[in-house]
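Hi all, long-time lurker, first post. I run a small reading group and we've been trying to get comfortable going from sequence to structure in the token notation. Rather than ask abstract questions, I figured I'd post a concrete chain and ask someone more experienced to write out its structure so we can walk through it together at our next meeting. Sequence below, copied exactly:
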Amino acid sequence: MSSRFAPEYTTCVLNEIFEDAKSLFLAPLMSIHYSHLVMLAARGIIPAQDAHAIREALDEVRIDEVRCTPYDGECEDLYFYIERLIAARCGEEAAGRLHIARSRNDIDMTMYRMRQREFLLDLFAATLALRSTLLDLAAAHRETIFAAHTHTQRAQPTTIAHYLLGVSEQLERDTRRLIAAYECTNCNPLGSCAITGTGFDIDRRMTSELLGFSGPTVNTYGSIATVDYLLESVSAAAILLTGHGRFVQDLLLWSTAEFGYMRLGDGFVQKSSIMPQKRNPVALEHARAIGSKALGQAIAIVTTVHNTPFGDIVDTEDDLQPLVYSMFRDATRAVKLNAAALRTAEFDAQNLEARAGDGWTTLTELADTLVRQRGVSFNAAHRIAARMVSLRAAHPQKQLSQLLAEASEEVLGVRIALGDDEIAGILSPRHFIAVRRTLGGPAPEETSRALDVGRSQLAADEEWRREVVNALQRAENMLKERSAAL
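-- Answer (accepted) --
Happy to help. Here is the structure in token form:
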């Protein structure tokens, strides 16, 4: 390979950048060429015959062939390589006109945003699929009771539906952040040129429309210099990954023999090479590991950009973009894998409910009942209930009614009388859940309401994605029609 560049620079930098650009940015680069050409011709900035010649030259560029082309060291990057192909087909004079009123700076920033909106839409779709899976599971388990944990200790009974709806609502908020990040990303820097714009009478709104952007960016300096749109997208993904990772960690605990809450389908577990009895939920482990990797990459992106000059700078460009791609790819993989695995999840409802009341998990309801029915202050009721537990440990043979009477006499000086059956009913996990009809609570009628809201919001978000994807497709079709007419 002959090159005008130093061999170390060629090997360590230019070859890597060329290969990354072929994979990530060749298609958007070609779309930018076509849209800019259509705009230049429409504004009369280049003659019609040159526009026609350039368009024919662009048509002859074979993307599959370019992707297979090794770096030859003669061109600095993919942009100049494509420029060489165009010039070979329509001549240097005509080809040179395509670069009027633009720079590699605004071309690069436009390519990055075009690819990033694809990354966002892919992660968005994976998040919708996970939400749909969670809502289906929640609908099937509104009555499935299990013991929730706080501070890693058994706390109170709730339902699988209640837990899953909490995760689903978090994902709804993640979705809002992804939408906001998409809207910030989907603005067109093309026409900002190097950093100060151009003296030519260009139409930035036309290229925005042809490339599927909602409109142009405004300040030309900021269009090249800012990376907040990127950091907003990365931050939205990082927040999603953090919450998702906490959820996956719970699922892995639930899948242990010690917990026994959940069992995945055979397609998402692996065997041991030595222990025949093992049934390892490795799909969830992979989801956790891939998600952690993506979160690390997100932090690396922010770190790379931090403390760089506010302007055109390599740190935000060629070397960073593959990391952006990898981060979004891994984030999407983690979420998709978890959704697929959960679609096979099974819960042992009978066993879960039988264990849900162990460890006095419903004792809060006894204290609440004393407040509601006997007018006891909650602090006093709390002490009575706690004293009952102590007395039961010391005198396991005594009836609950006797323990309550003794505890209340110690705390209040008055014996409260409730029958054993009444106390057992108050302390039952199913009663505990049934009376918790608070907005967002676990009572089945409330989780049914929350399910309806969740499905409605999911449908609205799915419609938003369809509209965005259709808008991009319409822009692509328009660009083909307008360029073919040159």
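A couple of things your group might point at:
Residues 174 and 239 are 7 Å apart (CA to CA).
The radius of gyration is 31 Å.
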